[in-house]
Amino acid sequence: MSHTDATELLAAVQGFLRQSVLPQLEGFDAYTTRVAANSLAIVSREITARGEILELDREAQSRWLAPAAAGSSQAGGDHSAARALSLALRDGRLQARDEFIDYLRQRTLRQMAIDNPRYSGFKQARQRWPELAAAAGVAEPGAVG
Known about the structure:
By secondary structure, the protein is an all-alpha fold. It is 73% helix and 0% strand.
C-alpha cells in the first residue's frame, strides 16, 4: 500500500470540488464550494510552510530574548516562540529595531504566501522588500535575489 501525504489528499479533494462538483452548481452553492476548495489550498500551503515559519520564530526568539524567556516557552506549543516575542514586544522587553522589523516583515511575507499568494498586498510587499522576500523563499518568479 502506498502512502499518500496530507497535501496530496487535500489536492485530490480540491481538484474533485473544482472539476467535478463546481461545474454542476450555481449561486450560493457554487460560491461555498469555491470557498471550500480555496480553504483546502490554504491548509495545504500551511502544512508545507508551517515548519519554516516556526523555525524563523525560534531563531528570532533565541536571538532577541534572554535564554530563560526563550526556554520557558519551548514547551508551549507550535506558536510559543511567536507568542513569547509578541509578549516581550508588548511589555517593552524587546525593542522594535530595524533587524526585528525585518524579521516581522519576513514572517508576514511567509504568512501572506500561505493565506493568499495572489493578494495584491503580498505582491506589493514582495516588490518593496525583494531581499526579505528572497530570504523568506517567496520572491517573485524571475526575481534576482
